[in-house]
Amino acid sequence: MFDFTALELARIQFAFTVGFHIIFPTITIGLASYLVVLEALWLARRNDVYQKLYHFWSKIFAVNFAMGVVSGIVMAYEFGTNWSGFSKFAGGVTGPLLTYEVLTAFFLEAGFLGVMLFGWNKVGPSLHMFATTMVAVGTLISTTWILASNSWMQTPQGYAIVDGRIVPTDWLAVIFNPSFPYRLVHMTLAAYLSTALFVSASGAFHLLRGNDTPAVRKMFSMALWLLLFVAPLQIVVGDAHGLNTLKHQPAKIAAIEGHWENDPKETSLPLIAFGIPDMQAEETKYSIEIPYLGSLILTHTLRGKIPGLKEFAPEDRPNSTIIFFTFRVMVGLGMAMLLLGAGGLLLRWRGRLFTYRPFLIFSVLMGPAGLIAVLAGWMTTEIGRQPWVVYGIMRTKDAVSGQSVIALSVTLVAFILIYFFVFGIGISFMLKMVARGPDKYGTEKPPQEPGQVRRPARPLSATPDDIDPAPRLEREDV
Prior knowledge:
- The protein has helices at 6-45, 48-81, 84-118, 125-154, 171-175, 180-208, 214-248, 250-257, 293-299, 320-350, 357-365, 369-385, 405-436, and strands at 159-162, 165-168, 271-278, 283-290, 388-390, 394-395.
- It contains 13 helices and six strands.
């Protein structure tokens, strides 16, 4: 297929499936925590606006959660079908970590999800709040185990190689590997930012359509408050994550910066704001440089330097041409998020938050920005790890299964067609629900207090009085 090798097709197929999948857990993580906040505010204030928003976003959460589960199952099979070399070599570490995720997180989410979605009128308010909290905790636990596994592949430790296979020797060292804390916080904040942008875009969309209701105003306002505080925090965490990556994966940082070699005549490192890295010519063409800024960002000094790509063997260099741009997409969108949060604060102070159309249009356009930034960030991380599947230990070419080019081409095309059809319908349905708005969903009765009757004493006493009686059958109709 287009002269790709089996290795390249396997990588493209996994990148496509994981890229599609990551969209859904990102929104799931953020929405689950948002639902906890909404229900807690409703319990504290008994304001029907919070209850209405809870029921509105819980329905969207349910659809998104289902698509995340379905898309995630495929990747588990791909480890065996396309990456059996990796599974054989590193399965002693990644297998248990993914198993812990299922046992501690997925079962927790699945166990309480039914109570959360369908138990509003069947359990007391405390139990329902507990169920919602457990679902949110489950999403965070799931994030923890997945990030522990992936971070170990980036910065492996706590292992030994026995008979050509990795054997864990220290599980605490495996889980709490050097990049894990930074990547866990960075991804969790990214999920919150993505959800805040999704919610704010929904609110702005309805405000632009004239649907100016208390519920719409409340969700728009809450989302912008979250953006205002989390966007700057994400920049700080991202900076710390970058310094950690420079320490453990210097080739990745050099590729991100398009930095090939240090000029002995220069005592500082400029930041290449734009350019086109050329892997063959070993240079970044058409570069636009900002003096000293590279040193300031990467070393927090005005005179610091980092290793250049030429200091690494050609076969050990990540593809700078790709991650140079994906990283800048992520950072650029992060700056736009910061601008959106600050703009919201200014308009809130001026009393025009819900009426200033240019800002509302900007909010709608920023709706998918969080998810695009997440995809760009994961591309930067994963492509920047190449040519290693386990950094410094196992090369990607040694991890692939012995599948034929034809088999991988056919399955890749099948995945693309099926994914766009199935998940296209799911995403379309979810967006239609968002377009309806929270005011289309009636306020449901609150969870009943303990001791209240939750079921009728006689089955037929639950039947509404306005139901027409069944027509009496005449003898000739029998």
